[in-house]
């Protein structure tokens, strides 16, 4: 009998010890005595929460990034400065016919370089302890998701604006809307029409011209296709063509890029609300309304620097870290380093300028 009592006591003690490690909001609670032991600085849930919020930020950012998926990514190791150099060999001309016993003139062999430098970008928001404690929704998670969208928009605009400086430009024909005939060919935004009768439209014929230009410039394709990042207002006009093929109707099984909506004449289109809508100054059309820039890419057209330890980073600081003497607020933010984009081959980025049915109502972005 004594032996049974001893075993029962030991059994109960086993569960009693387990009560010492019950996790609670303020620390470890002993389920039998109610004694509370505070979490130590090295033993908190912060690492798991950080991983969760980091993942949430990156997922939301990547879901809204369209230009970066076509870039050549160049790593920049820590401690190697802020500038990266891309190098490419110069090409040779075709061989000429040899004359017997005559040494021909040789060709020079060289290298062309392109450089890009990184800058740092970032933002944050503060969330009060009252909002965090009493809101129905997870405000930290909500802020993280919105920060992801902000990060994507920032990176998209930086890449977009860097590509706008490229000098390889095609202006869409001014089309008589009633007949579909070409009225004239613009040579600048100021000569692009955007009236009720004549408009500089991105038509299937302009797509074919763009593909022809890229082929003549020997621009290599991306998996057999060229790619365009296009604004929804421009895509609206183009998708009305009977030749348009929606992405979900592709006959062949191949990689579908983020935001890809369809194909026409060997050019695939990725829709992006941050594609350039340009107004005022040098980009205003003849009617004084906005114009649109659609970027077409071949393989390895532009480069983005990926700095070691300088990529997109989510930063969440709890009340205890950032909230002042009374722990009154938490902060949620992000930062990253980037060069925006560096055009590596001028001929591999073709900017197509057009107007749209929405030129009179869209605002420059």
Radius of gyration: 30 Å
Q: Poorly predicted ranges (pLDDT <50, ≥5 residues)? A: 4-19, 41-45
Oligomeric form: single chain
Which whole number gives the mean pLDDT? 83
Order of helices and strands: HEEEHEEEEHHEEEEHEHEEEEEEEHEEE
Number of strands: 22
Please outline the major beta sheet: 8 strands, mixed
What proportion strand?
A: 25-35%
Count of structural domains: 1
The N- and C-terminal alpha carbons lie at a distance of 85 Å
Query: How does the overall form come out from the CA principal axes?
Result: globular
What class do helices, strands and sheet pairing give? alpha+beta
- How many helices? The count is 7
Helix content: 10-25%
What does this structure look like?
- The protein has one domain.
- Helix content is 24%, strand content 28%.
- It has helices spanning 2-18, 46-62, 129-134, 139-163, 204-216, 232-238, 319-322, and strands at residues 22-23, 27-29, 36-38, 72-76, 83-89, 111-117, 119-128, 169-171, 174-176, 182-184, 198-200, 226-230, 245-246, 260-264, 267-271, 277-278, 291-297, 302-307, 313-317, 329-338, 342-343, 349-354.
- Helix 2 (46-62) crosses helix 4 (139-163).
- The N and C termini lie far apart (85 Å).
């Amino acid at each position: 009998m004594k032996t049974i009592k001893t075993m029962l006591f030991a059994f109960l003690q086993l569960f009693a010890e387990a009560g010492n490690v019950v996790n609670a909001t303020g620390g470890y609670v002993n389920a039998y005595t109610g004694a509370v032991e505070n979490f130590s600085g090295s033993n908190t849930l912060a690492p798991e929460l950080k991983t969760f919020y980091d993942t949430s930020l990156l997922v939301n950012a990547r879901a809204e990034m369209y230009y970066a998926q076509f870039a050549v990514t160049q790593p920049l190791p820590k401690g190697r400065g802020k500038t990266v150099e891309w190098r490419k060999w110069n090409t040779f001309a075709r061989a000429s016919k040899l004359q017997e016993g005559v040494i021909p003139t040789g060709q020079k062999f060289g290298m062309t370089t392109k450089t890009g430098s990184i800058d740092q970008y970032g933002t944050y928001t503060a969330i009060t302890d009252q909002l965090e404690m009493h809101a129905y929704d997870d405000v930290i998670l909500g802020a993280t998701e919105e920060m992801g969208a902000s990060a994507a928009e920032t990176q998209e605009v930086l890449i977009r604006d860097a590509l706008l400086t490229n000098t390889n430009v095609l202006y869409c024909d001014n089309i008589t809307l009633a007949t579909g005939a070409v009225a004239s060919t613009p040579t600048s935004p100021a000569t692009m029409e955007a009236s009720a009768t004549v408009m500089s439209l991105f038509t299937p014929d302009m797509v074919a011209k763009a593909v022809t230009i890229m082929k003549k410039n020997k621009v290599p394709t991306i998996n057999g296709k060229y790619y365009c990042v296009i604004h929804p207002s421009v895509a609206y006009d183009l998708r009305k063509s009977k030749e348009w093929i929606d992405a979900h109707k592709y006959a062949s099984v191949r990689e579908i890029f983020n935001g890809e909506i369809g194909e026409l004449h060997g050019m695939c289109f990725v829709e992006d609300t941050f594609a350039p809508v340009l107004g005022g100054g040098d980009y205003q059309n003849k009617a004084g309304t906005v114009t649109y820039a659609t970027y077409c890419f071949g393989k390895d057209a532009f480069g983005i620097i990926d700095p070691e330890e300088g990529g997109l980073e989510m930063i969440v600081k709890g009340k205890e870290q950032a909230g002042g003497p009374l722990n009154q607020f938490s902060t949620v933010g992000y930062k990253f380093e980037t060069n925006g984009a560096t055009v590596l081959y001028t001929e591999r980025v073709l900017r197509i300028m057009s107007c749209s049915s929405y030129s009179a109502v869209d605002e420059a972005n």
